[in-house]
């Protein structure tokens, strides 16, 4: 499918491989075809290329693994140095909501303390790929199997992004960190 170059561009990236960036970006693009979801992976050159000459938002995908958390913080720091005003959100993959919030808080504390920065919380993607019920349909994205709960979480995120960015276009510009309500 050809993407509209004027549509809001969202970069989905990770500080390290193995966090599910490709599956997540594919599912988000399918759920919100009006957005340009860019799978930037985990290589800095690919991330920089996806971001320049500008993007609407970056979603940093991580897991609750300490190495993934550290890599996500490093990615946020690098993005902040090059793209000062870029809105950033953290999405925790393969995690229950409660654990995802703990992971996000660890990243947020580091960002606040060392960067003087606040990053948003995009939510969590539950790890339900192995809990398939007989006859249950699964979404295949980039070789990964996403369970129904994971697909539903990503569809909710895609809907929120689509509504926020559509509302932004109607309302004009917004400041990073500003709470945006529905129109």
Structure in words:
- With 183 residues, the chain is α/β, with parallel strands linked by helices.
- It has one domain (9-129, 139-168): P-loop containing nucleotide triphosphate hydrolases (Rossmann fold).
- 43% of the residues lie in helices and 20% in strands.
- The chain contains 5 helices and 7 strands, in the order βαβαβαβαβββα.
- The strands form 2 sheets. Strands 2-1-3-4-5 form a 5-stranded parallel β-sheet, sandwiched between helices. A two-stranded antiparallel ribbon has the order 6-7.
- β4, α4 (97-115) and β5 (120-125) form a beta-alpha-beta unit.
- α3 crosses α4.
- The radius of gyration is 16 Å and the shape is globular.
- It starts with 8 loop residues before the first strand and ends in a 12-residue tail after the last helix.
- The relative contact order is 0.16.
- Mean pLDDT is 82; it is low at 130-143 and 170-183.
How is the CATH topology named?
A: Rossmann fold
Q: What is the overall silhouette?
A: globular
| Poorly predicted runs | 130-143, 170-183
Level-1 CATH class name: Alpha Beta
Radius of gyration: 16 Å
**Helix content range:** 40-55%
Mean pLDDT: 82
Tell me the number of strands. Answer: 7
Q: Report the total helices.
A: 5
Which class of secondary structure composition applies to the elements? Answer: alpha/beta
CATH level-two architecture = 3-Layer(aba) Sandwich
Spatial sequence of strands, sheet with the most strands: 2-1-3-4-5
Strand content: 15-25%
What summary fits the major beta sheet? 5 strands, parallel
Tally of distinct domains? 1
């Amino acid at each position: 499918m050809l993407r509209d170059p004027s549509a809001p561009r969202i970069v989905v990236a990770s500080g390290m491989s193995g966090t599910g960036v490709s599956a997540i970006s594919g599912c988000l693009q399918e759920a919100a075809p009006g957005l340009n979801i860019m799978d930037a992976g985990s290589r800095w050159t690919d991330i920089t290329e996806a971001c320049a000459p500008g993007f609407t938002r970056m979603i940093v995908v991580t897991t609750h693994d300490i190495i993934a958390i550290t890599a996500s913080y490093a990615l946020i720091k690098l993005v902040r140095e090059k793209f000062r005003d870029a809105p950033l959100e953290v999405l925790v993959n393969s995690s229950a909501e409660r654990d995802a919030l703990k992971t996000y808080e660890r990243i947020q504390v580091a960002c606040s303390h060392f960067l003087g920065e606040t990053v948003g919380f995009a939510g969590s993607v539950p790890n339900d790929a192995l809990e398939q019920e007989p006859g249950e349909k699964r979404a295949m994205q980039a070789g990964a199997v996403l369970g129904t709960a994971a697909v539903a979480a990503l569809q909710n995120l895609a809907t929120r992004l689509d509504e926020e960015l559509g509302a932004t276009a109607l309302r004009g510009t917004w400041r990073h960190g500003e709470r945006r309500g529905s129109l």
